[in-house]
Amino acid sequence: xxxxxxxxxxxxxxxxxxxxxxxxxxxxxxxxxxxxxxxxxxxxxxxxxxxxxxxxxxxxxxxxxxxxxxxxxxxxxxxxxxxxxxxxxxxxxxxxxxxxxxxxxxxxxxxxxxxxxxxxxxxxxxxxxxxxxxxxxxxxxxxxxxxxxxxxxxxxxx
Length: 158
Description:
This protein is an alpha+beta fold. The chain contains three helices and six strands. Residues 1-14 and 148-158 have low confidence and may be disordered.
């Protein structure tokens, strides 16, 4: 996994951008995307000594799974997943070649399936769709730690 750190001191919560990106071409790679997210978050804990709650790990994996699944299902060609940590949150970005904006259906407990974006929007601090010169990029942010002060009972020390 290639990680890039932009900025300086990682002793503050996050003073720069820490990120990783990967391209996915097949639906069988959705599990690989979740693994990449889990590994990225583990590195935030151990290498960068940032508080990453277990809830964050689960929520980021859910968001990655839903967004990559939708990109693979509804857009031709590969998709690009970018994970970044900055300003107390984990940013999940997924680019795909389709210009069609995702449709978020109204909540309906009787509907079977198609609840993915509904779930993503419920667990994220922010959700946005950006048109690109080719395709679109969907970005979502999940809080890095449960406590707004940055503390987490799940923090792992090295």
